[in-house]
Design a protein that fits this description.
- It contains 16 helices and 7 strands.
- The protein has helices spanning 42-53, 59-81, 96-99, 102-108, 139-149, 158-169, 206-222, 236-253, 284-297, 308-311, 340-355, 358-366, 379-391, 404-422, 430-450, 457-481, and strands at 2-5, 14-20, 27-35, 263-265, 279-281, 321-322, 328-329.
Length: 482
């Protein structure tokens, strides 16, 4: 039974409902609830797909996209009804060329399993594009259902089924049949380590996909004024057309951080075909490439700079309504514009929290005990890459050309270094504390050099503030030591 909830305030999307017999585990009732929020998927067509692909702003095409989205969600929830868990490594099964081919995606899907969380399979204009959504069962889905439900000839007991089931399970090393679920996606605390296991990404080269997607989304946002609003529409339509790709941009911009200090996990058993040790290093080259993506698309001013002709039209419509007690209710937001600087700062802090979490720092520090020197990154790399990315313009005075987004990022990192040195969180490795102290000394030195240049008042104030944070942290720890 599939139930549609036409709620005035959509909340949850969709969920599978299962009732089982507690004595046997047998499912005796299964269904799917779909909230009316899914009906809003047409906005993704209008505000993201149509601008990216240079397609017409068509209500009929919007409705067709909504139908496809509903179909994909129903497939996913049906998998839950059959007992399947999320599979967040399913995107790694296919290449970019494959998911750009509609003939391929109509047969195999855009990922190997409907149990993935998939973004829109969207590529810039001029590039082929497969189906936008997962419209078919993937190879993993047939495989998992076969493992769970297929009759094993000649097996009269559960024990007798094990050889056949183990033979199926031994195929983990084949990308088509890999499985990794929710527990391997907790990157924010540092628990998750395999960058292949994440939600809302595509292809077997996530970094390349992220680079393409971020550039495309930035272009869509920068072009909002060319499409919205149409004559007679409120300017709030331009705001919606900007905020939808902005949400996708924020989500994608944090993904490269998952590569930093990562390791690949294998769930294959010993002796399985093509099996590898359970832990394999992410290469230093890939980790540095991930950092460069963060530097370009998250920590730079350019990443958050948009045309004034776009930003000055992103207002909201005034709305009020009559409450049940007969009084007028009016609840506006704090700001009339879209707070780009605040959003950038919040997103940057989220990534910094992940990269410099005690568990992440400890794992990176321990990599040298498992892998050859130079094959993967070190804590020195993390601190040096971040310092060069954040403070490379201080000593030369080039920081005068920086905008508020970059200045904020520089101050956030200075305060984080101070915290690591003066009052580190429990579990922070001593190597990280030592490197933080060294970085503070370098920061104070670079600020002193930068202040020798002719600077505007804002830049001089900024450099002096950075220098003060560094010096005060160093002096505070020296006082504690005495």
């Amino acid at each position: 039974m599939v139930r549609w909830f036409d709620a005035s305030q959509p909340q949850y999307g969709a969920e599978a409902l299962i009732v089982t017999d507690p004595r046997t585990g047998e499912e005796i009732n299964a269904g799917i609830n779909i909230d009316s929020v899914m009906g809003l998927q047409g906005r993704t067509y209008r505000y993201v797909i149509a601008p990216a692909r240079n397609l017409p702003d068509s209500e009929a095409l919007e409705q067709e996209y909504v139908k496809q989205s509903l179909y994909a969600v129903t497939l996913h929830e049906s998998g839950h009804d059959l007992g399947l868990q999320h599979n967040f490594i399913g995107s790694m099964a296919y290449s970019a060329k494959q998911v750009q081919d509609r003939t391929f995606t109509s047969k195999y899907g855009i990922v190997s399993s409907v149990m993935e969380y998939t973004p829109v399979n969207l590529w810039p204009r001029g590039t082929p594009n497969g189906d936008y959504n997962q419209m078919v069962l993937g190879p993993y889905d047939y495989y998992a259902v076969k493992w769970g439900y297929e009759y094993v000839p000649g097996a009269t007991t559960p024990e007798a089924e094990k050889p056949a089931l183990n033979a199926l399970a031994s195929r983990w090393s084949d990308p088509m049949y890999r499985f990794a679920s929710d527990e391997d996606t907790d990157f924010e605390t540092g628990h998750a380590i395999d960058p292949r296991v994440q939600t809302d990404d595509l292809t077997d080269n996530p970094l390349a996909w992220e680079r393409t997607t971020l550039a495309m989304l930035h272009s869509i946002m920068n072009g909002v004024a060319n499409r919205f609003p149409k004559n007679g529409e409120p300017y709030e339509e331009a705001r919606r057309a900007f905020e939808r790709p902005l949400a996708l941009y924020v989500r994608t911009s944090v993904m490269p951080a998952h590569v930093i200090g990562g390791e690949y996990l294998s769930r294959a058993a010993a002796g399985d075909p093509h099996s590898k040790p359970p832990l394999q290093p992410v290469s230093r080259a890939d980790e540095y490439a991930a950092w460069q993506l963060l530097q370009t698309w998250l920590f730079s001013d350019a990443a958050w700079r948009f045309a004034p002709a776009v930003l000055d039209r992103l207002a909201y419509s005034e709305v009020s309504w009559l409450g049940t007690n007969g009084t007028w209710i009016y609840n506006p937001g704090d700001r009339h514009d879209v707070p780009i600087v605040e959003i950038a700062s919040r997103t940057q802090e989220r990534v910094m929290d992940e990269l410099f979490a005690p568990l992440t720092l400890t794992r990176i520090d321990d990599l040298s005990t498992k892998y050859a020197a130079g094959s993967t990154m070190t804590l020195s790399d993390l601190f040096d890459w971040t310092r060069n990315g954040m403070y490379g313009d201080l000593a030369s005075g080039a920081v005068a050309k920086a905008g508020v987004v970059r200045r904020n990022a520089q101050m956030h990192f200075a305060k984080r270094l101070a915290q690591l040195w003066v009052s580190p969180s429990d579990g922070t490795p001593t190597d990280a504390q030592s490197l933080a102290r060294l970085q503070l000394e370098m920061l104070a030195h670079d600020c002193a050099l930068g202040l020798l240049h002719s600077l505007d008042e804002q830049t001089r104030a900024h450099l002096e503030a950075l220098q003060a944070v560094a010096k005060q942290a160093l002096e505070a720890r020296a006082t504690i030591a005495r």
